């Protein structure tokens, strides 16, 4: 593999955190005690933590300096003004409501924009997003292009909405029965797959004809913008900021988890253009999050988020970010390890169906693969398959086509050498894949079960 294609880290490291090296014996014990759920491990026992890119970002010196100028007034904080102005400039929406993190924004939006019985079409589900939609009487409908459900297809912009699926839903249910279209940039559960600008434009045109609103899940909008610049015709000379601005020009609003592309550890917000929705969101935010001028964040959190959002738009940052993830994916691919293709913006997804052909989906192959990877290497990953998908209203397991293990790369935290180590560990485990045994539930919580479920060997 040609390392020249991968830019070196565009930063210097000036604070370090020492990690613990553990023995295999210690990890076997830790994994057993955690019920074979990587979410239940103690972070202290983890060597390289690829559980999630959520809130695990390394902040810059400027962001830390921003923490010191936190204005912790209960109302009217100057940091809110900074964040508000930054979001409005970069995203172009008229109104912003801060929340403690992305799901806080999803809660508000679902309450104010969904009437019971309405449909909420989206490009593949996300766990907390769908939960809030359904809790408010909505029915999620997956309208992502078919290719997204096939891990082996290496096509660009696999996150695109299938316009025929959207048209069919409108024809069958009527525009009035559609709350809004939820368009995620990028699509986390499809493997971090981006959406093309062309698709966003077309979704806008189709929905405008029927008076249907479009809200983006903007969580990884900057990573999505990088793909557009790199791979979509006509965008090579545009800045990341210009691309982000155009993306949001085709939306009525968005929910944002600051814990991803805002390069902070906590925070989120909801945006919209509609005055009425803004009024309703402000009324609800007081109940669930805090004043409309802090939404569950400290002043210093808002300052760090405003600075982080600007830093995320720097080309050198986002190029390194996406390419570092790609580096890990390419290494695994070269060694013949089955991964979801193409490699997405924030993570490499191992294809557990092909990794563990000896296991059925009911044996939770991805869950067991994640547990075994930790035992063998101290690398923590997470299941994104049948366990994450949960049960439907009738109590049956959703059985998603994608049964994956996500190796999620935190922003600005690890080096290429760490990626080498992860790749070696996964390749070694792939050679010994028969040792990965099936699991069953020892404890299954009712909602969002992947977070706290416990397992035992079948
Ligand atoms: C993380 C995430 C969310 C929820 O955000 P939180 O900040 O974790 O509440 C929503 N959508 C996507 C795609 C995410 O990855």
From TrEMBL:
The keyword Secreted does not apply. Residues 49-424 form the Aromatic amino acid beta-eliminating lyase/threonine aldolase domain. CDD domains: Tnase_like. One of its GO terms (biological process) is tyrosine metabolic process. Keywords: Lyase, Pyridoxal phosphate. It catalyses: L-tyrosine + H2O = phenol + pyruvate + NH4(+). The modification N6-(pyridoxal phosphate)lysine is found at residue 260. Its EC number is 4.1.99.2. GO terms for molecular function: tyrosine phenol-lyase activity. Its cofactor is pyridoxal 5'-phosphate. It holds the Pfam family Beta_elim_lyase. Transmembrane segments: none annotated. PANTHER family: BETA-ELIMINATING LYASE-LIKE PROTEIN-RELATED, TRYPTOPHANASE. Belongs to the beta-eliminating lyase family. Homotetramer. This is Tyrosine phenol-lyase. It comes from Balneicella halophila.
